[in-house]
Amino acid sequence: MSQQYSVTFVNNSTNLGDVCVFQKDPNIGVANVQSLAWFTKTTHPNTKAIFKWNIDYSFVWAETGELVPGVQFIASEVLEADLTQNNAVNLSYLNKAYTFTKQKTEQPLGSLLIHQDPNIPLKQASVGIGMSGNGTFAVQAQPNLDLTFTPHPKYYISFGTFTEGEVLDIAQMTKFAELKFDPGVYSITAILNADNTWTIKSTNQVNKELVAARANNPTAQRLP
Fold first, then answer.
1. pTM to 2 decimal places
2. Domain boundaries in the chain?
3. Were 130 and a residue from 36, 60, 106, 211 both cysteine, which residue would form a disulfide, CB within 3.0 to 4.6 Å?
4. 106-111 LR contacts (CB < 8 Å, sep 24+)
5. pLDDT (tens digit, 9 = 90+) per residue, 172-216?
6. Which residues have C-beta within 8 Å of that of residue 59, sequence separation ≥ 6?
């Protein structure tokens, strides 16, 4: 299994809402690709939520109808994939049902390839890739169209009203922050402050600051 990453979200705002972790990738190589709400969780003020994942890829598809912001992508099939083997698959429509077929290894390695069969109906399903079991990017399924996803994962966090799997309208989202993992750092903490701004630090750094603060505040708690 690949390296595990984690983010601890701390809700220091005064609002009940949904924290959403998602990915953006303008250079993924597929036109009209949509970012999905990868992980979400409802949190109260003064609470926290922890998200963990591995960089383990998959192919995903769902019967979404037209893929537009707000539509929920609930994967009907999640097929494990890898950038160096089993990186290609067909989306087929057999006996009036979608399924992945003919998984194999193809060039270019480092990309995830989806070949769509000639009989794929228009505007009924969507197909894409996922990570750690959940969909991350999706595009409208179309007949005879080959898709080459070349992922460069960048992670972001937002807070508001979200449903896991929904198509995000990135252009309309203004209050989100990048979850940047520096070399050798695999756990970070994202704090939503009282003024609804973000503070992003390594979890190790946050814990060091809390240890130092305990001298003056014995009730300070160490984050996991």
1. 0.92
2. 4-172
3. 60
4. 108/148, 108/150, 109/83, 109/84, 110/83, 110/84, 110/150, 111/29, 111/83, 111/87, 111/148, 111/149, 111/150
5. 887 899 999 999 999 999 999 999 999 999 998 888 877 777 767
6. 77, 78, 79, 81, 89, 100, 112, 114, 127, 128, 129, 130
